[in-house]
Design brief:
The chain has about 260 residues and is mainly alpha-helical. Helix content is about 60%, strand content about 0%. Helix 1 packs parallel to helix 6. It starts with 19 loop residues before the first helix and ends in a 15-residue tail after the last helix. The relative contact order is 0.18.
Length: about 260
């Protein structure tokens, strides 16, 4: 992967000036703290879900506050860093299109997204009766249950979910690609682009630890692809658009096609 990083990402943490400690703390939180916070919040959400009809809407609102709040803090830290212009954290128009290899991977990813959406719409994950294995209830939990529990069912939930989807695309790309990779590159100057992509993939995957191993791997691959697009274009614009499209696809899935165990 040939990516020119010179003059794009900060070359040294000293470039951040007095903001460097705060930048490292936020980057550390994204990798170490966010998996625990996310798992805790999701566990509480699931415990309320069956008894409280407003649990999903309340969880959406909490996500909005957390993501915009953390993004605002990261923005303040970046603004306090001298000499770190917008282009050095991806806040610029794309300099070029991604390379052929990355474009092929993006197209393959979008194809998989389309297939998975069609599968969900068809009700492939709806509960089916069958013998339960020892330790399970009448129906085994469907794959990706934690993620499916987040999907909207009512009209109001769908409206809020649309806002959450756009928020995730904007805030998570800023935090995990623009801000986080700038700090990593400043902490370890000269890292190859491929290593930065792997670091971004690991950090983003861990942030979704509440979804289990499959969720970590899936979101990790997505995070790596979006990081490659960002590094090759020098802009967060395309990653944000891709991220939003991937999240909002769930609005195409009717609630009747979702498993009752996740409702």
């Amino acid at each position: 992967m040939a990516v020119g990083l010179g003059g794009t990402l900060p070359a040294s943490l000293t470039d951040w000036g007095p903001a460097q400690l705060a930048a490292v703390i936020i980057a550390g939180y994204l990798v170490v703290g966010e998996p625990f916070v996310g798992a805790t919040l999701h566990r509480r959400f699931e415990s309320r879900l069956r008894a409280d009809p407003a649990a999903r809407r309340s969880f959406y609102r909490r996500l909005l506050v957390l993501e915009w709040g953390l993004s605002a803090v990261a923005t303040v830290v970046w603004l306090a860093a001298p000499g770190i212009g917008p282009a050095r954290v991806g806040l610029a128009w794309p300099r070029q299109w991604p390379g052929p290899g990355t474009l092929v991977i993006c197209l393959a990813l979008l194809a998989l997204v389309a297939v998975s959406t069609r599968s969900l719409r068809s009700g492939a994950l709806a509960d089916r009766p069958g013998p339960a294995r020892p330790g399970e209830g009448r129906h085994a939990e469907p794959p990706g249950r934690a993620a499916l529990a987040l999907l909207p069912r009512t009209r109001l939930e769908r409206r809020l979910f649309a806002v959450v989807g756009v928020t995730a695309g904007v805030c998570e790309e800023w935090l995990y690609r623009g801000f986080f990779l700038a700090v990593v590159a400043a902490l370890a100057p000269g890292l190859p682009a491929a290593v930065l992509v792997l670091v971004a993939a690991a950090g983003f995957g861990l942030a979704h630890a509440y979804q289990g191993v499959a969720g970590v791997l899936t979101t990790g691959v997505l995070g790596g692809v979006l990081a490659a697009v960002y590094l090759q274009t020098g802009s967060l614009l395309l990653p944000v658009v891709l991220h939003v499209v991937i999240d909002l696809r769930f609005l195409l899935v009717p609630s009747s096609a979702l498993p009752a165990t996740a409702r």
